[in-house]
């Protein structure tokens, strides 16, 4: 605290700073006067000296001759600008991490944008309130720079934007002395430069210092905008690269302020939802106005230059602070110690550390709507309390005992699981994954029938071991190893297939395959009711009954791969095959069976199950007490919370909204699936059905930035896979569609 002469010294410093500010404003007033006089002069001598006047009012012309004389000066200043950007961008990434890449692109874009005509270089500007500015100019992506008659020379926020419960004069960027501190305070403040070089220290900075840092960022932007105007009338705009880049972000200052009000934190999680359309240099391939449906979560109807605020449904859960390994360190460890074959989604990968029901949280505490469900694996919801309690309770008593001993967990779950299946499907074998389950099913089929030939469908996926890799019919999942005895039938694809929705015509291919490609007898036919990895592809109606009949006539068994479509996901039925009115001989399952716990199963008839008694069959972890306790809890939750009906209702609502989006955007070629297993296929040409692979990746990445996680798949990589937890709500569905809508409108 200052006393005596110290107070007088501080007052003197304040007066000096106030005087300096008045001088800056006076300089800006002089610029306005000169600028207005130049406008009048332009109108008076337009025919005589149009190329000798810098028209700051609409287009600033820089003669080529002057440009050549100032090349060296320009290069020097550009170097300074690049250094400035090198300091500026790291701080920007900390303040506005979700928009940093896009803004960096804009900086590159606006610093390199030029139009050459008549040996002149044009820099584009417009001025608010000018009657000569046309509607087209107003809609331009180039900046509108406000010049008023008062002291405000930048398009920034007013003081009201900073009115919060804990606000004070020192927190406002419009205070004349936002950074004044007592000597005692100075020792406690982390310098801005130090923070920029060490962004990981952010979490250790006191809240008051974060406020000071936010104020510095706002002041930096405002000062740069003022500098852009004051340098403009001195004819130096052509070498002011950084100022042009900042002026291009006409909404940026307001967005930062709005982010503060929303988040109250230095890490602006929801910033992605309020990015102005003017911050993007990309223009929609299929531009249409953003409309507000009756179910929309849009806070307002967006105009051409309005920011759009999409509201994620409220959720009463706050994850505990994360103090673990950073994303950068995790990436380093993955590269050093994990297989180079593994990959991750997104250019900026997520470090997920927490999950609750249909939401996931990253290491900064930001919430995401999980519409992928860990690849159709989380059914009850992340960390569902009843599933967690079952796991913890069993873990405390007995973690592992092989099936050589008795334990109630495996027996109780087997009984409950068998009760969910039709006919004589009563014998359960537990595995650790879907691949293991399908391998075992193929093994039993070949042993039971005495045949080796298996038929599967093109575009299907059944696993990555020796046998299942053969049944898988996607080249990207097939290594160059022996995969004999498998035939891939024509895919009954209703969108791309040659027979459309006529399942009987597709089924003839299986009959011909048996006739011409085998001895006339086969071991099995394996298929998913809805192809998951293949892009949520529904089999054409009538296909499965016809094929099952053909296979059984050839002595084969019918295997239903329910790894992704089982356990009530399709809504209308508990199992995907039930929709087609068939009963398989063997059913395989995994993923949703354990809600994230590694667990799989094969269910078949007692007669077929006996085949494994010919030799010893054993699986160490098949039927682990903890895993089976989790699986049993999943069945109870699905029934108790009526998740099958919820999947049907919410899935129907979501599919209707996605179909409405299909009518709005030509890039959406097909919407398909049932319940909460839906696919959206993107194409660049609706007639040729050209896959929009790059656009799919872009929209997926942008939706992540806006808080929605979806998957993608399909053989061509152009299908969104929407397989959320079955606790997904209609409000969640509306938010997902609104985010997809907004993202596509900005492509």
Automatic annotation (TrEMBL):
One Gene Ontology CC term in the entry: mitochondrion
Entry's Gene Ontology BP terms: photorespiration
Acidic residues bias spans: 148-168
Pfam families attached to this UniProt entry: Aminotran_3 (PF00202)
Annotated segments matching region Disordered: 148-190
InterPro entries (alphabetical): Aminotrans_3, Aminotrans_3_PPA_site, PyrdxlP-dep_Trfase, PyrdxlP-dep_Trfase_major, PyrdxlP-dep_Trfase_small
Keyword line: Photorespiration, Pyridoxal phosphate
EC number: 2.6.1.44
Reaction equations catalysed: glyoxylate + L-alanine = glycine + pyruvate
Protein's UniProt keywords contain Nucleotide-binding: no
Enzyme class: transferase
Required cofactor names: pyridoxal 5'-phosphate
Tagged with keyword Transmembrane helix: no
Ranges in coiled-coil conformation: none
GO MF, any single term: alanine-glyoxylate transaminase activity
PANTHER family, alphabetized: ALANINE-GLYOXYLATE AMINOTRANSFERASE-LIKE PROTEIN, PTHR45688
Family, similarity comment: Belongs to the class-III pyridoxal-phosphate-dependent aminotransferase family.
Protein name: alanine--glyoxylate transaminase
Organism of origin: Fraxinus pennsylvanica
């Amino acid at each position: 605290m200052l006393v005596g002469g110290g107070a007088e010294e501080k007052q003197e410093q304040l007066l000096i700073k106030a005087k300096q500010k008045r001088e800056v404003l006076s300089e800006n007033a002089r610029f306005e006067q000169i600028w207005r006089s130049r406008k009048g002069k332009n109108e008076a001598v337009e025919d005589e000296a149009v190329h000798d006047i810098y028209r700051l009012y609409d287009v600033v012309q820089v003669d080529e001759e002057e440009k050549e004389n100032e090349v060296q000066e320009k290069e020097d200043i550009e170097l300074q600008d690049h250094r400035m950007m090198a300091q500026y961008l790291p701080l920007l990434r900390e303040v506005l991490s979700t928009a940093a890449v896009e803004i960096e692109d804009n900086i590159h874009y606006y610093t390199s944008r030029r139009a050459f005509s008549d040996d002149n270089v044009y820099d584009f500007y417009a001025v608010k309130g000018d009657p000569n500015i046309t509607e087209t100019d107003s809609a331009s992506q180039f900046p509108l720079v406000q010049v008023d008659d008062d002291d405000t020379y930048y398009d920034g926020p007013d003081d009201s934007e900073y009115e919060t419960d804990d606000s004070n004069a020192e927190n406002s960027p419009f205070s004349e002395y936002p950074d004044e501190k007592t000597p005692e305070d100075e020792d406690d403040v982390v310098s801005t430069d130090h923070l920029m070089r060490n962004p990981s220290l952010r979490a250790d900075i006191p809240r008051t210092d974060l406020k000071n840092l936010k104020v510095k960022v706002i002041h930096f932007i405002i000062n740069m905008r003022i500098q852009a105007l004051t340098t403009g009338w001195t004819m130096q705009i052509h070498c002011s690269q950084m100022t042009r880049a900042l002026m291009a972000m006409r909404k940026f200052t307001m967005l930062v302020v709005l982010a503060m009000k929303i988040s109250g934190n230095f890490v602006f999680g929801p910033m992605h939802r309020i990015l102005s359309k003017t911050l993007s240099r990309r223009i929609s391939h299929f531009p249409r106005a953003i409309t507000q449906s009756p179910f929309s979560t849009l806070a307002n109807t967006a105009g051409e230059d309005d920011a759009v605020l999409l509201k994620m449904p409220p959720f009463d859960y706050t994850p505990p602070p994360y103090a673990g390994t950073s994303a950068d360190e995790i990436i380093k460890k993955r590269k050093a110690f994990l297989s180079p074959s593994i990959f991750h989604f997104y250019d900026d990968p997520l470090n997920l550390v927490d999950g609750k029901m249909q939401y996931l949280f990253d290491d900064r505490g930001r919430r995401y709507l999980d519409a992928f469900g860990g690849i159709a694996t989380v059914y009850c919801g992340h960390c569902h309390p009843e599933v967690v309690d079952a796991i913890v309770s069993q873990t405390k008593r007995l973690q592992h005992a092989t099936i050589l001993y008795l334990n109630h967990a495996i027996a109780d779950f087997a009984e409950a699981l068998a009760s969910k299946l039709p006919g004589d499907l009563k014998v359960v074998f537990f595995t650790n994954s879907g691949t293991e389950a399908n391998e075992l099913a193929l093994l039993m089929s070949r042993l039971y029938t005495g045949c080796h030939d298996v038929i599967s469908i093109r575009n299907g996926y059944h696993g990555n071991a020796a046998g299942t890799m053969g049944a898988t019919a996607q080249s990207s999942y097939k290594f160059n190893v022996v995969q004999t005895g498998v035939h891939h039938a024509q895919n009954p694809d209703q969108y791309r297939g040659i027979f459309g929705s006529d399942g009987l015509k597709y089924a003839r291919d299986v009959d011909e395959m048996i006739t011409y490609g085998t001895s006339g007898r086969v071991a099995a036919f394996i298929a998913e009711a809805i192809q998951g990895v293949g892009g949520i592809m529904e089999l054409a109606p009538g296909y499965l009954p016809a094929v099952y009949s053909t296979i059984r006539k050839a002595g084969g068994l019918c295997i239903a791969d329910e790894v992704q479509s089982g356990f009530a996901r399709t809504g209308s039925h508990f199992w995907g095959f039930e929709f087609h009115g068939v009963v398989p001989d063997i059913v395989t399952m995994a993923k949703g069976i354990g809600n994230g716990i590694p667990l799989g199963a094969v269910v078949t008839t007692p007669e077929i199950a006996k085949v494994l008694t010919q030799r010893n069959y054993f699986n160490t972890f098949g039927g682990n007490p903890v895993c089976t306790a989790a699986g049993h809890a999943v069945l109870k939750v699905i029934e108790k919370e009526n998740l099958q009906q919820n999947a049907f209702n919410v899935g129907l609502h979501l599919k209707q909204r996605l179909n409405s989006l299909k009518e709005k955007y030509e890039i959406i070629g097909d919407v398909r699936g049932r319940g909460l297993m839906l696919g959206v296929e993107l194409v660049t040409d609706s007639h040729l059905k050209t896959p929009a692979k790059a656009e799919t990746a872009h929209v997926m990445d942008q939706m992540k930035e806006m808080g929605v996680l979806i998957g993608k798949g399909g053989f061509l990589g152009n299908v969104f896979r929407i397989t959320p937890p079955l606790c997904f709500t209609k409000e969640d569905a509306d938010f997902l569609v609104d985010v997809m809508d907004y993202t596509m409108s900005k492509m």
